[in-house]
Amino acid sequence: MTFDLTPYPHLLEPGCPWVPLREWGGLPNVKWCEETLCSVVAEPANTWSNLAYLAVAAFLFWFTRGSPSRVQRFWASAAFWVGTTSFAYHATVAFATQVFDFWGMYFFFCLVLLLNVVRTGAVAKHRFFVTLWACIFSLTALTVVVGKIGLPVQGIVVLLIVLTLATEVVASRSQVVDHRWLYATLAFIAVAFGFSASDASRAWCDPSSHVLQGHAIWHVLGSCSMLCAFFHYRQFDLDGLAPTGSPGPA
Predict the structure, then answer these.
(1) pTM to 2 decimal places
(2) What is the pLDDT of residue 240?
(3) Whole-angstrom distance, CA of residue 40 vs CA of residue 190
(4) Which domains does the chain have, with CATH numbers?
(5) CA dihedral 187, 232, 104, 61 (to 10 degrees)
(6) How many other β-carbons are positioned within 10 Å of the β-carbon of residue 121?
(7) pLDDT at 207
(8) Is 119 or 244 the better-scoring residue by pLDDT?
(9) Residue 150 per-residue DSSP state
């Protein structure tokens, strides 16, 4: 544990909800700015902001409901799990639920990375979901190991983003690709990262605010980036089940 806990006395205060879970599995490797409350929802702003992901999941479920493409329909599940696991993590602020949070994030990051790998031909389309689930659970296990030996688990996500961008470049060499939605995705991520970094570094930090937090803004902008990413990848026929550009009702 490398962060100063003195501003956050409720993290380990006896009698507060989730303290037994924190004592059992340990604390997460990062403490976001928002004050930890002695409450079932320990970080209200960081918790409730995840409803943005669930709103995106609901939209994607509606938008792809008529699609014959299993890959395109899976985006709603990815958004749902990102939002649900992050909600649980920020409500409890424990290492066990932080791992659960990363499991949810891997739904999205493994999805986009693997879609690029499929586009390059390195993974066959019919092996997509087998490979996807293997990646999600393998990275989750790696997260536990990395976290327990004291290394920054956030580096795994950074690596996945770098690999996704690299494979996008490779995959686009042999295809005519419209990158406008991808640029929007990256713009949202860049701004979201700035808010989250300012939160983690305490450059912009008001622990007493349970409405506006930098990491909460990360959640909202991150949900926007996920939606933009969906519209980028819907231009490809990745599972052979649907015509390119026909993901569902317009």
Answers:
(1) 0.90
(2) 57
(3) 32
(4) 9-233 (1.20.1070)
(5) 120
(6) 10
(7) 93
(8) 119
(9) T
